[in-house]
Write a structure and sequence with these properties.
The protein is about 35% helix and about 30% strand. With about 280 residues, the protein is α+β, with helices and mostly antiparallel strands. An eleven-stranded mixed sheet has the order 1-2-3-4-11-5-10-9-8-7-6, with helices on both faces. Helix 4 crosses helix 5.
Length: about 280
C-alpha cells in the first residue's frame, strides 16, 4: 500500500477538515439554545461548546501564517472570558511562532494523539451485503434517526472508563452526530447492541471517529468490523483518504494499523489554566 508523505498542504487539509466538523457542532449547539461560540484566529478556530466539553478547544492554528502576539492574546481572551482553560490541538507543522507563544506564556502538554491515515481505494468495497461483516455474529447498520439517543448512549458507555457519562457529554455527542455529512453506525453481536462509531465525510477525507465497544463485547472483533464497514462506505462515497485518531500505543492504534493506517504525525494538546 502507498505510503503517504506529510507536507504542509496535507496537514492543512486534515486539520481543517476536523476543524470544520467542530465548527458545525458549535453552530448546531448554539441553535439549540446552549451557549456556544466560534472565533476565527490565526488561520484556525477557537471553539466553545460549553465548559469542559471535548469540543471546547482551538484547532488548526498557525498552519497558514505566523501567529502574532495579537492573535494569541485574542485566543486567550476568548476562553478566559468564559472562565475556561485554553486548550489547543497543535499540529507539529504549525508555524514556530505558535510554539514560542506557548513557551512565553507557560503552557504545558496534556495529551498526545496520533493522526493516522491511509488511502481509500475503491477496490476496498466488498460485494457482500452492506449490513454484514466478515464475522457472521457481528451486524453493522447505520443508526436511524430514532436510534440517535441509543447510539449516543452506547458510544458514551464504551468510553466510560476514560470519560464519565454525563448529560453534557451526551448532549455534545448527539449534536456532533447530527452535523452535516456525519453518519453514525451501531454494531450488534447476535442481535444485541455491542458498540458504535462515526463516519465524517469532509471533501476527499473520511474521518473515522467516535468508535467504542461495550465492555461485555470487547476482544470479539467489533472495532475491526466497524473500521472495515466505514472504509467500505468511504470508498462508496468517493473519498480518497481515511483519517482516524488514536492514543499512541493504544489498542485502538493497533487495530487501525492492521488495516493499513500509518501514523502521519502526532498532534499535541497544549493547555493553560484560566487565571483566577
Amino acid at each position: 500500500m502507498q505510503n503517504l508523505i506529510l507536507d504542509l498542504d496535507l496537514a492543512r487539509e486534515i486539520e481543517l477538515a476536523e476543524a470544520h466538523a467542530a465548527v458545525n457542532c458549535a453552530e448546531l449547539t448554539a441553535k439549540s439554545g446552549v451557549a456556544a461560540d466560534v472565533s476565527s484566529i490565526a488561520g484556525g478556530f477557537a471553539i466553545y461548546c460549553g465548559a469542559g466539553s471535548p469540543v471546547t478547544q482551538a484547532v488548526a492554528l498557525g498552519l497558514h501564517r505566523p501567529v502574532s502576539t495579537e492573535d494569541f492574546t485574542r485566543l486567550e481572551q476568548f476562553y478566559f472570558a468564559r472562565n475556561e482553560p485554553v486548550r489547543v490541538e497543535t499540529c507539529p507543522l504549525a508555524d514556530p511562532t505558535l510554539f514560542e507563544h506557548y513557551k512565553e506564556r507557560g503552557y504545558y502538554v496534556t495529551e498526545f494523539s496520533n493522526v493516522m491515515i491511509r488511502p481509500v481505494q475503491n477496490g476496498f468495497a466488498s460485494s457482500a451485503r452492506p449490513e454484514h461483516t466478515a464475522n457472521a455474529d457481528i451486524e453493522i447498520r447505520r443508526a436511524a434517526p430514532e436510534e440517535l439517543d441509543l447510539w449516543t448512549m452506547t458510544v458514551a458507555q464504551g468510553f466510560a472508563e476514560n470519560y464519565p457519562v454525563t448529560h453534557e457529554i451526551l448532549s455534545v455527542m448527539k449534536v456532533f452526530a447530527s452535523t452535516k455529512n456525519t453518519e453514525c453506525y451501531l454494531a450488534r453481536v447476535n442481535g444485541k447492541i455491542a458498540g458504535g462509531a462515526t463516519l465524517a465525510l469532509r471533501g476527499r477525507i473520511a474521518g473515522l471517529f467516535g468508535a467504542s465497544t461495550l465492555v461485555d463485547y470487547r476482544n470479539r472483533g467489533v472495532q475491526t468490523a466497524l473500521l472495515h464497514f466505514r472504509l467500505k462506505r468511504a470508498a462508496e462515497t468517493g473519498c480518497e483518504l481515511a483519517m482516524s485518531l488514536a492514543v499512541p500505543g493504544s489498542h485502538s492504534q493497533r487495530n487501525i494499523t492492521r488495516l493499513g493506517f500509518q501514523t502521519l504525525y502526532t498532534r499535541v494538546k497544549f493547555e493553560r489554566n484560566c487565571p483566577r
